[in-house]
Amino acid sequence: MALVGFLLLAGAAIAGALGVVLQRNALYGALSLVGVFVATAVLYLMLSAPFLAVLQLIVYAGAIMVLFIFVIMLISVRYEESGESAGVPGGTKRYTAMGLAAVLVILFSILSFKMALTPSGTRSLGGITELGLALYQKYMFPFEVASILLLVAIVGALSITRRHGRGLEGNVAMEKEV
Amino acid sequence: MAPSPALFQVLAAVLFSIGVMGVLFRRNILVIFMCVELMLNAANLSLIAFAHTLGNVDGQVVVFFALAVAAAEVSVGLAIIIDLFRKKGTVDVEQVSLLKG
Q1: What residue in A sits closest to B89 (Cα-Cα)?
Q2: Which of A161, B22, B45, B72 is the most exposed place for a label (fewest CB within 10 A)?
Q3: The CATH number of the domain where B13 resides is what?
Q4: Number of domains in chain B
Q5: Do A17 and B9 touch (CB under 8 A)?
């Protein structure tokens, strides 16, 4: 039963990932990526990590993807990759990509099967209690550093996109496109 | 029957490989960025699967921090992309090769 669920979710995740890579329109790619994130969130639930599953939905599928879709709408709805650059690349590029993917997958598979992983029983693991205890005791310092990192990211994003000089100076490209 | 832990690792490897392919062979910088997110997500899945297998909550803590870093990375990265588009009028990486010499 759980195996069937896993296979369905894995299929959905892989299909969504292929959608991200192969869709010509970046907006459809973003929607596929939301699908991948939802599928992996359910997988997190199967792996006894309910808190991270919820966090994945809120942070990734919610906040981050909304930001992505905002930027795609702002920039590149009309800009679609033209000609052969779109979708599946042809010739040598395609074979290189397939070979690379095959090597990676085989390598990872061999590695993870060799390690003879066995599940460690059914004790609950990723509830808010355990995670919170670990976060606020063992990982207190990294936790605070992460908050500073987020603050710096906010300031950085604002200062990068701030328009230099007055008005629309240095904004030729945007005017030409819109 | 529960799926074997190795299956989760294989799924993470497949997702990661697809992300690598996207980064290598797409030219739209937004799509490349989304593929990077895909790879991060695959790594997170692998970490959570290992945490489950080993019965240890540390892997989940790492994923928690990876989420925070990913949020920061996306906000700064998208800001750079917007600035790039303002200056260059394109999101095609082949046409933005200032540092190529």
Answers
A1: A173
A2: A161
A3: 1.10.287.3510
A4: 1
A5: no
